[in-house]
Write the structure tokens for this entry.
Amino acid sequence: MLRVLVCVSGGGTNLQAIIDGTKDGRITNAEIVRVISNNRKAYALTRAEENGICAVCVSPKDFGDREQFNRAFMDAVEEAQPDLIVLAGFLVVLPKELVGKYVNRIINIHPALIPSFCGKGYYGLTVHEKALERGVKVTGATVHLVDEGTDTGPILLQKAVEVEDGDTPETLQRRVMEQAEWVLLPKAIDLIANGRIDLDRLGGTVGV
Ligand code: GAR
């Protein structure tokens, strides 16, 4: 069984999709061993608790400086002994040390077709605001490996979603979630858990 740690910051609909996937058979050979939120008020924590998953909050607000937060966050990760770390709407920059330790073992879901509408400052609703401002006709979501950059790691899966006349950032966000994010993230975890995506052959230096 692949031990999956999920990091969240907000509503946790992607976390819910993973939980549902493990229950309805879309994800096999994987279990969610822990959920970590940086935000005490994140509804994602409630979703985890309601499903009997260990849920912990590690908030930068509770620490004197970033160094202390990073240490506490690293400890919370290590306690879970994860095989895979999934960033499901996690809006905090990961400690460098963590990224270095879990090379090819961290994936992220981004609500656009990378390399469009990604990088520093592109998260949540802003991504869809920018896509509508630019007037794109197609957008989507991407699951990618996390490296030391922002949204720069190797792409694992992508799915396109049509922009419709009259879309607002909110309606577009909802469609991208329903048609792409909630499909792609469980699929990526299942493919990894069953050896059909070989992370060691994709990113970093392993196997190169
Ligand atoms: C999702 O749309 C996810 O793709 C996005 O935050 C949202 C979290 O929603 N992540 C990013 O923008 C990361 N750059 P959720 O808490 O309901 O899963």
